[in-house]
């Protein structure tokens, strides 16, 4: 009994030691709170870092878009100045050497700006592919947008070829270049007009896709309904604006056809045209293009700015309550889809 008591006395403290060790190894409430606060602060730092990176990316894209917009507007301005110089030559006259120098400078600048817009079209096509992989646009939208970018790229290559051929003919003569320049001078503005009409169809496809997404979410509250009506009005305005641009592009195409008929492929003799009606029409169309492009840029920025605040609100709230994530995520998807569908900011070169 004494031995049993001895062994029992020895076993009890060991079990108590195990219990004490087990309780001592359990985390305290203060430790849990400290770990939770560290996790929350880490999430906050990650969220701030992601927003900072996103702002840098948006700034970089905004800077590149501004460069392409400047190139686009510069292209239209030099077209207006070119027609104005032709009228000046009719009124006051100019030497052949002066005309040749202006022709070389005009087509060299035109080729450089066309290269910039060509790069913009390639980057836009890449963004369309990325948007499709992220499920932001459907297959039909991807096909329409890629077709538009392909037309823009082809048109840009044609205008670059015309510019280089015109510079070559200004320095030397070539019958084969004249024939090629005459064909390209008709085909390039035709593809530009087709690209403009395709943009109208692209807006319609984007509207149908967004309307279908809203219907699938089953939003019945008054907030999303009002927002949907606002988006519907915006799409109607965009369709009308792009249709107007397309009609003016078609008129510009007709002017280029008549210009090609007058020059007979001698694009280096651009400043020998004596038709004042044609020159005045080209100046008028170019000025209208500038105004329409300004309206398009401000319309797109005004449509994206109110929704970008919703995306930032989603990022802020995702650090805390995640119950409203699907609603804000769908809004973010619409914003990304809108920016992807409007990636082609530069006008068609016609």
Automatic annotation (TrEMBL):
TM regions (residue ranges): 67-87, 107-126, 146-167, 179-201, 234-253, 273-292
Domain of life: Bacteria
Keywords: Membrane, Transmembrane, Transmembrane helix
UniProt name for this protein: Uncharacterized protein
Organism: Anaplasma marginale (strain Florida)
